[in-house]
Amino acid sequence: MHNHVVKRKGIFRQGANTTFPTPDELFAMHDKINVSKGLILPVVTAECSFQTQSNEEAMELAQTYPDRLSWFCNIDPRAAKNSVDTDMSYLLLYYKSHGAKGVGEICANMCFDDPLVLNLFKHCEKCEMPVTFHIAPQIGGYYGLVDEFGLPKLEKVLAMFPKLKFFGHSQCFWSAISADVNEKTWSGYPSGKVIPGRIVQLMRKYPNLYGDMSAGSGYNAITRDPEFGYSFLEEFQDRLFFATDICAPENYKEKFYGFSFWLDEALDKGKISKNAYEKICYKNAAKILD
After folding, report:
1. Can you tell me the distance from the alpha carbon of 149 to that of 8, in angstroms, rounded to the nearest whole number?
2. 3-state secondary structure 105-166
C-alpha cells in the first residue's frame, strides 16, 4: 500500500546516490517478498523530492500494468488558486473517474490544521477518497504535514472529518506507538519494550485512523517489541496495511524489506490469527483498491 515508481530514472535523490525504481525494478523486488500488486503514491510536492511525478504518469503506469499496480492521486494543498476556496473536488473527481483510489502521500510541509490543508481534507471526505499522510516535526528542513509532539493536530483533523479515512505513516507517527517516546526521539526509531502510547489511544478513539506499516518507521513500531506487536496486529487487524515504502532499487538491503517474512513467521508460529494475517496482508487493501 505504499510504493514509489517512475517511468524513467531521473536525478539522484538528495543525500543518496540512487533514484526511484522503474516498474521492472519494483516488480522484481515485489516478487522476492511475494507481493502481487502495489499501490503507487506519486510525489507531487517539491519539498519531498527533486524528481516529482505527475498524477498522469501514475495513472499511465497503473493502466499499463493493471495486474501489478494501482494508484492514488496526489494533490498539494496549495494547488490551483492557493486558496481555501479552491474546489478540490473538481480535481479529485477527475482522477477518481480515471481509477485513483485515494490521495497521497501528502508531504506538503504545512501544518496539519492549516486552512489550505483542511480544505483539501474537506473535499477528500466529500469525494470519499482516503488519504495517506507523512508527519514532520517542524516547518523547514523536512517534508510532511507538521504536528506537535503528542499529535494534537492529528487528533483535531480526525475529529473534524470523521468520515475520512486517514492512513498514518512516518517516524513522527509510528514512534508515538509507545508512551516512552520524547521530543528527542519522536522523529526517529525508538527501540525497546512498548508502553501503549498515543497511536494506540487514537486508534481506539477514532475508527477513521488506519496504519500504513511501511518503511523503517512502521516496521520498527511493530517488531521492536514482538509480543506487543502481535497484540497490536490482532486488535487493529481491520485497519492495518502491509506496506513497504519502496522508493529505491537498493531497498532490498533494508530491514523493512523483510517485513512480509516477519508476518509469515508470526502466522506460522501461531502468534497472530489467520484472519488478522489475511486482512493485513491483502484483504484490507483489496477493500480500498477494489
Report:
1. 38
2. EECCCCECCCHHHHHHHHHHHHCCCCEEECEECCCCCCCCEECCCCCHHHHHHHHHCCCCCE
Topology adopted by domain 23-289: TIM Barrel (3.20.20)
- Note if the bond before 105 is cis, omega within 30 degrees: yes
Going by C-alpha positions, the residue among 94, 52, 103, 30 that lies closest to residue 282 is: 30
* 131 to 48, 88, 94, 100, 102: CA distances (angstroms): 17, 14, 16, 11, 6
8 Å CB contact between 241 and 280: yes
d(CA 140, CA 245): 23
H/E run at residue 262: helix 259-268
pTM: 0.96
CB 209 within 8 A of CB 203: yes
Contacts of 270 (CB under 8 A, 6+ apart): none
* Structural contact between residues 37 and 70, judged by C-beta atoms closer than 8 angstroms: yes
Least confident span in 15-29, 111-125, 219-233:
15-29
Q: How many CB atoms lie within 10 A of CB 100?
A: 24
- Residue 56, classed as helix, strand or coil, is helix
pLDDT digits (tens, 9 = 90+) for 156-169: 999 999 999 999 99
